[in-house]
Write a structure and sequence with these properties.
Elements: E1 5-10, E2 14-19, H1 20-26, H2 29-32, H3 54-72, H4 82-94, H5 104-114, H6 122-136, H7 143-154, H8 179-192, H9 200-205, E3 207-210, E4 213-217, H10 221-239, H11 242-262, H12 264-267, H13 271-274, H14 281-286, H15 294-304, E5 310-317, H16 330-334, E6 347-355, E7 369-371, E8 374-379, H17 383-386, E9 395-403, H18 409-422, E10 432-434, E11 440-442, H19 447-458, H20 461-467
Parallel strand pairs: 4-7
Antiparallel strand pairs: 1-2, 3-4, 5-9, 6-9, 7-8, 10-11
Helix pairs in contact: 1-4, 3-4, 3-8, 4-7, 5-11, 6-7, 8-10, 11-15
């Protein structure tokens, strides 16, 4: 191979350099397909700035991985290895090749509905597409290196006679600190218009390898907490936004209904078919003349007109309460109705967990640090050694209820609140009720107050302005 460099200008990292062995993977249909897969899926329908794609995130992750390995291998007690550098960079570049239409909607919602017996993750798709590139493009690469790249993508380090610290870079199963998060947190915040306080460049600068593990300067302990807090904040405020979740559910229904036509269910086994899947599938459904797609087309039409599934209610599940999956179903909610005509299809139950990246555990407990005076000794820091204001609990579970039919919101909410009361759980803290027309009304609002409120909101802007006190 030659030493040709290709420069790509990026709003997050500036000019990124890629050598020709990386370019031969980037310039393929399998990789270029990521230009048509939104990084944040349907979040774009709620936050218009979130228009970035898996393509640029994959480039950014590859860029960071390349630079981190190069910097770490300058450590005096480590031997530089060009093969390791290439493998880690290619794993970072290709780690998201398996994302389907609208990213996590596909692997978290669509595939479990279509093939519930299959435990499939997008990492499995990434491994499949990686091998597709190598086979179709006749790339000369050692088979053992291919297996190593696959393992770096999935994060499974067992059975490899390689430096274990290399598995901390792309998909870190040890403590979740990796360049994938470095890029997507910074990139997502940038496109969402949010200010991120997490400085990934500091962690990269103050990292080193001790006992075959990447560790960080102890003064960066709060930066590590900031990484996980920012990730949680994005999940809480953005990734799991109520309206975004409603559109998620609609896209899922549309794709499931379209499966007999597009054979989505079997694409995860065939790279030739999988490469055809991207966010453009909604447009393909929308403008198809196939009568079998009528239901899917109606759902997509409702998305276009913003006639969305409606959020009804939610409640936090106390961490000491264990509710089996079969007790949180549409059937269970509907069974608590009172004289209504609800059926299971009217109700959607979403049970989601948000955490710091290691379920209910503190991920920083598994991060090791070093001191500038003892750079070859790694140690852990307890939460109290960092700050008394860092969290004591690291995961929360929420159950949300959505309605496919907006005319049934009130009945669904009443049934759900009977259900939560029986389990001694508190529903939405706003104490809002839903009236017969589907409007949220603050608890305690009298009909007289509500009438004045409607009169005000339905009046013209000039009329409203005349009623608002002026501050001189």
């Amino acid at each position: 191979m030659g030493d040709t460099l290709k420069y790509i200008n990026d709003p997050i990292h500036g000019y990124m350099e890629f050598e020709d062995w990386a370019i031969q993977f980037i310039d393929t249909p399998q990789f270029q397909r990521l230009r048509d897969v939104k990084q944040l899926g349907v979040t774009y329908y709620v936050f218009p700035g979130a228009s970035h794609n898996r393509f640029e995130h994959s480039l950014g992750t590859g860029h960071l991985a390349y630079n981190l390995v190069k910097r770490i291998q300058q450590q005096p007690d480590l031997e530089p290895c060009e093969t390791d550098l290439k493998c880690v960079t290619l794993a970072a570049l290709c780690h998201d090749l398996g994302h389907g239409p609208y990213s996590h909607v596909f692997d978290n919602e669509v595939i479990p509905r279509l093939r519930p017996e299959v435990k499939w993750r997008h990492e499995d798709g990434s491994v499949m597409m990686l091998n597709s590139i190598i086979d179709k493009e006749n790339i000369d690469i050692d088979k053992e290196d291919v297996k190593f790249i696959e393992a770096l993508i999935t994060g499974e380090s067992k059975g490899f006679n390689r430096s274990l610290y290399l598995f901390d870079i792309v998909a870190n199963k040890r403590n979740s600190v990796d360049v994938d998060k470095f890029d997507y947190i910074e990139r997502d915040c940038y496109h969402l218009g949010m200010k991120s306080k997490f400085e990934f460049s500091r962690l990269m600068q103050f990292s080193r390898v001790i006992d075959d593990e990447i560790v960080y300067h102890h003064k960066e302990s709060f930066t590590v907490y900031e990484l996980f807090h920012t990730r949680y904040s994005l999940h809480k405020r953005i990734y799991n936004h109520r309206v975004g979740k409603a559109i998620n559910l609609m896209v899922t229904d549309a794709l499931v209904e379209a499966d007999p036509v597009f054979n989505i269910v079997n694409s995860i086994d065939d790279p030739e078919e999988y490469v055809k899947l991207s966010d453009s599938i909604l447009t393909r459904i929308e403008y198809s003349d196939d009568p079998r797609l009528a239901k899917s087309k109606e759902i997509i039409k409702n998305i276009r007109y913003r006639k969305l599934y409606k959020f009804v209610d939610e409640c936090l599940i106390p961490h000491q309460v264990d509710i089996p999956e079969n007790k949180l179903t549409p059937t269970e909610i509907v069974s608590h109705q009172s004289g209504s005509d609800l059926n299971d299809n009217d109700v959607i139950v979403e049970r989601l967990k948000m955490n710091y990246g290691k379920k209910d555990k503190n991920p920083v407990d598994n991060v090791k640090f070093y001191d500038q005076f003892y750079q070859n000794e790694a140690f852990n820091l307890s939460r109290s050694q960092v700050s008394y204001l860092v969290p004591e609990q690291y995961e929360e579970e929420i159950v949300r209820i959505f309605a496919r039919d907006s005319s049934k919101i009130k009945q669904i909410q009443e049934a759900f609140r009977r259900f939560t009361k029986k389990l001694n759980m508190e529903s939405s803290p706003s104490n809002e009720i839903i009236n017969s027309r589907g409007y949220s009304i603050p608890d305690g609002y009298s009909p007289k107050k509500l009438k004045r409120h409607r009169t005000f909101t339905n009046s013209t802007s000039s009329e409203r302005a005349s009623r608002v006190p002026r501050i001189l």
